[in-house]
């Protein structure tokens, strides 16, 4: 699976599939910022959604670092949500802080973490992704997982443990890569 | 989700949008008409005014010279 930076680089080269993948990768993120964090109505959230990707497409060349695509998209979405809230206000213009619903920063942090976990899950391999998804997201029992995957129920716990260790290593790698000491 | 598909189809509309923006840069009256009603401007050029295309045109016009 391509990293965000690799995907951006391919989009710049005019790779249509890369653009499709980029939209797919960030679509839920953008929609969640507009819908959950800023609580826009579905029509307003759709307008913001389309505006975000139109601008990303238009300005991809201006992105200074390909790895910064996610924060850039987040900032763009945030700004466009505020513009949307401002335009629908009946009273006069207001400060950004007054337009933002309470808890926006916390929501954005949670969405960022969810994106990071999701990307890490994609990186640990299909087998681990499936078993972790079944256990933690779908809340399936060892027995159900074992039956679905053709594994003895007794081995599921150790598999989950190994996959969690792999996921942790992946997550640690990602957070190191984002710090100044991470050589990126 | 239809929104995702619409955004994915943006590159296909790129040339048509670029043509409209180029005309708008060269012709102030045309630009004023386009800015006043993006959907109608697209329709009159035979371009389907999907939300993503309208958004792309708006973004391109914002970057272009009046």
Structure description:
The complex is a heterodimer of chains A (184) and B (66). Chain A is built from nine helices and no strands. With 184 residues, chain A is mainly α. The C terminus of chain A is likely disordered. Chain B is mainly α and 66 residues long. Helix content of chain B is 80%, strand content 0%. Chain B has five helices and no strands. Chain B is elongated and about 35 Å long. Classes of the chains: A mainly alpha (184), B mainly alpha (66). The interface between A and B is medium-sized, with 19 and 18 residues.
Shape of chain A: globular
Extract low-pLDDT stretches of chain B. none
Mean pLDDT of chain A: 87
What kind of assembly state do the chains in view correspond to? Answer: heterodimer
If interface size is counted as residues with C-beta under 8 Å from the partner's C-beta, which chains form the largest one?
A-B, 19 and 18 residues
Distance between the termini of chain B: 35 Å
Q: Radius of gyration of chain A from the CA trace?
A: 19 Å
Order of helices and strands of chain A: HHHHHHHHH
Computed over alpha carbons, the radius of gyration of chain B is: 11 Å
Helix run count of chain B: 5
Mean pLDDT of chain B: 86
Through-space gap between termini of chain A: 19 Å
């Amino acid at each position: 699976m391509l990293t965000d930076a690799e995907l951006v680089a391919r989009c710049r080269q005019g790779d249509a599939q890369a653009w499709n993948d980029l939209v797919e990768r960030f679509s839920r993120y953008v929609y969640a910022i507009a819908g959950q964090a800023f609580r826009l109505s579905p029509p307003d959230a759709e307008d913001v959604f389309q505006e975000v990707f139109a601008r990303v497409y238009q300005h991809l060349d201006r992105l200074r670092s390909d790895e910064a695509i996610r924060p850039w998209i987040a900032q763009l979405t945030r700004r466009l949500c505020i513009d949307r809230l401002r335009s629908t206000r009946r009273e006069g213009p207001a400060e950004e802080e007054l337009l933002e619903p309470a808890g926006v920063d916390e929501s954005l942090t949670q969405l960022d973490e969810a994106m990071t976990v999701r990307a890490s899950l994609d990186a640990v391999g299909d087998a681990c992704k499936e078993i972790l998804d079944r256990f933690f997201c779908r809340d399936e029992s060892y027995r159900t997982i074992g039956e679905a995957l053709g594994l003895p129920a007794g081995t599921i716990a150790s598999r989950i443990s190994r996959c969690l260790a792999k996921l942790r290593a992946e997550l640690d790698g990602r957070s190191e890569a984002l710090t100044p000491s991470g050589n990126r | 989700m239809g929104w995702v598909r619409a955004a994915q189809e943006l590159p296909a509309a790129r040339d048509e949008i670029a043509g409209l923006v180029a005309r708008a840069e060269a012709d102030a009256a045309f630009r004023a008409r386009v800015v006043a009603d993006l959907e109608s401007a697209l329709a009159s050029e035979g371009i389907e005014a999907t939300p993503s295309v309208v958004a792309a045109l708006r973004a391109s016009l914002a970057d272009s010279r009046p």
